[in-house]
Amino acid sequence: MTRAAARSHVDRPWIPVLMSRKTLAYTLDVSETTIDDWVARGIIPPGKKIQGNLRWRWSDVEAALSTRFDGDVAGPNNRDTPSPGNKLAKAIKAQEANCGAS
Q: Which end of the chain has the smaller Cβ count within 10 Å, N or C?
């Protein structure tokens, strides 16, 4: 495994401001193909080329998911189950609260 590959799957105590497609997929617990699909469907914004590398700003992705899955809104196909976006938002808020408490 290359150093870059090992580094991309390290559990960090923080979320990077800018992330690659691979890191974004890992952070959201989805496949890289799902990231491409979500961009094509307008669920998340497209990444931007920065020095030849495609990167996503976490705050843009978080904002897109937060507006799509605001509150305890259930997913479109299953009204009894809270959406993954809601779980993600709660996890992020808990992480931010823990970081601020130090």
A: C
Q: Is the pLDDT of residue 50 over 60?
A: yes
Tokens 């890992």 belong to which residue? 26
Residues 43 and 68: beta-carbon distance below 8 Å: yes
* Cα–Cα distance measured from residue 13 to residue 16, given in angstroms and rounded to the nearest whole number: 10
Q: Are 83 and 90 in contact (CB under 8 A)?
A: no
For the chain, the residue count is 102
Output the DSSP codes for 7-68: HHTPPPSS--SEE-HHHHHHHHTS-HHHHHHHHHHTSSPPPEEETTEEEEEHHHHHHHHHHH
Domains assigned to the chain: 8-101 (1.10.1660)
pLDDT of residue 12: 62
CA-closest candidate to residue 61, choices 4, 20, 9: 20
Measured at the CA of 27, the angle between CA 22 and CA 33, to 5 degrees, comes to 45
Pick from 15, 20, 36: which is nearest to 93 by CA?
15
